[in-house]
Predict the 3D structure of the following.
Amino acid sequence: MLSVKNLHASVEGQEILRGLNLEIAAGEVHAIMGINGSGKSTLGHVLSGREGYEVSAGEVRFMGQDLLALAPEERALAGLFLAFQYPVEIPGVSNMEFLKTAVDGMRRHRGLDALDSVSFMKRARAASKAVNLDQNFLKRGVNEGFSGGEKKRNELMQMMLLEPHLGILDETDSGLDIDALQVVAAGINAMRDGKRSFILITHYQRLLDYIEPDHVHVLVGGRIVRSGDKLLALELEEKGYGWLDGEVA
Amino acid sequence: MSDFIADALHLSPGGAPAWLNDLRRKGWSSWAGSRMPTRKTEAWKYTRLKTLEQGAYLAEAQPPAAGTLARGALRRQLHIADLDARLLVFVNGFYDAGLSDAGADADMEVLRFSEADAEQVAVIRAHLGTVADREHYLFTALNDIWLHDGLFVRVKKNVNAGRPLHVVWLTLAQNEAFSLAQRLLVVMEAGSEATLVEHFASDGAVQNSFTNGVTELVLEANASLCHYRLHLEEEHALHIGGMHATLGRDARLNSFHLGLGSTLKRLDVVVRHDGEGAHCDLNGVYLPRHQQHIDYHTCIEHAQPHGSSSEAFRGIISDSARAVFNGRIHIHPQAQKTLAELSNKNLLTSDKAEVDTKPELEIYADDVKCAHGATVAQLDSNALYYLRSRGIAGRDATMMLSFGFINELIDKLQHAAVGDYLRPLLSALFAEQRTQVEHQFERQTAQTGSGQEG
């Protein structure tokens, strides 16, 4: 589904990703762990197509396409979804209008008819209920005045409605209390259908207690220095990241 | 070029009540002794009056010929669904019973000056021309001399007028370019409450009117008024006018302004805090496009202590249009403990669009809090990326964000029904601007260089 080869990327002239390789097959859940500044979030934004992230070398193929040649919206339509670490507040644009526009666009791209308002409302309400977000949030501006946890749940709700092939969750667990974490984890687990894949970007092993990854990777200095199964996450929890510093070339 | 000052004196609609002569005389002497503002006149620095002077808008306004009004369509155009307001419609200055709602509300007096009884005349004369200053605002003097009738609204002491009043000033093109003066005087007695929607409209045809609309609002102690002034005229309709309010002790004014552009549109919005502890919320949106020009000059006079004012105006300027915003806050020496904030944000969607924005603070009291800001904004590149990352195409995302930029203020209106009425009208304007939005999007993406590491 996703194949990243020798990816080099820089932000404001500083190279953050330095030869990253990653292969994700359909249905797999990969956790990417690492300390601040190791390039975890950069990876998410480079894959999602944020401006200002310069790719100097490497190749990314997603669902058979050259991902890096696509605009952010084309990547989304191709089935890639990034749940932001810091979701953006957009006052004046209602959550409902935003979601309806996004879902309509996605359905059109997939050759489906646009949903009428009633059917859309029904789905939006069900999704907001699934993530335990009050329906009044649908009427408010996008993320406007939402708490950190509410923003994260809104990201999850969007992912449920857009039904991507690959969900990248950038520190979706940070700032969540244990109840919210369980809600988020349950939402993600419910979307695991054997075909959909996930990248969980996280600092902590905690999330992985609830969402069991197939593979765990450790990112240091813009490269994956160690890969393993879920036991690697437990090892990191125990030892910290320091013992891997020596592996940066 | 004609001498508009002199020509305007010849236009003097008849039929005015004799008691208005006093006002007209005062207006006459102010106007006749004045000169037309030029670019050297500070308050008119960015707004040329050429269109008015060359257009010779000197025919008299006439009532529409019998049977020519498409009342069904007009009513649908003007009606604000779910507001449950009493609708009063004036066509080229003349009351139209067929478009208006019949019957009166017991808790709000609404009448034309020509219908006023002796007591009402006394109240009108006591206030008319005292709120709008004809020396500072020259076109108020013109309104005085052209005035042949006006509308008087009064809410009595401690009465809450539950049903909003929706006054429509509709202009329709005449054979010759014409002028009309409209005057509205609102007296909110102590402790009263009301909602008023002033709505300037025209049909879709090319207009040839020059409207001089002056509104005076008197809020006595503890009175509360929610006021809207919506300028939705066709783009060839000229308008120079304004709203002038005076607030008594602890009075509250919430006033929202919407201005679509026109060949020439100048609106002065003036609020004077004359009693202690008064508060006003003053918000507005302007959207000039094509070759339009719109100029909002706002002024808040804090003349007494413990008052507060919160003001936010936003504009989107497109094509070769020009906007002018001047936000003055004047805090008098005795107005200690005043809280005043002013924000003006502008979005330019074309390289030829222009805005001149200027906050103007004069603070003569030392114990006050005053915040102000005026910006020419870019769309937030993070927000743009966020929307695009959900599959929304760049130009659609740009359109959503531009609309959101003004909708943020419309979302905050006290009457959701007014917002629901305005949004489709504004969306339609935005939809017409697709090619520009694409241009704006390209410009925006060309300018945003870098992102941040999360």
In short: Residues 449-454 of chain B have pLDDT under 50 and may be disordered. The interface with chain A takes residues 380-383, 385-394, 396-397, 400-401, 403-409, 411, 445, 448-454 of chain B (CB under 8 Å). The radius of gyration of chain B is 22 Å.
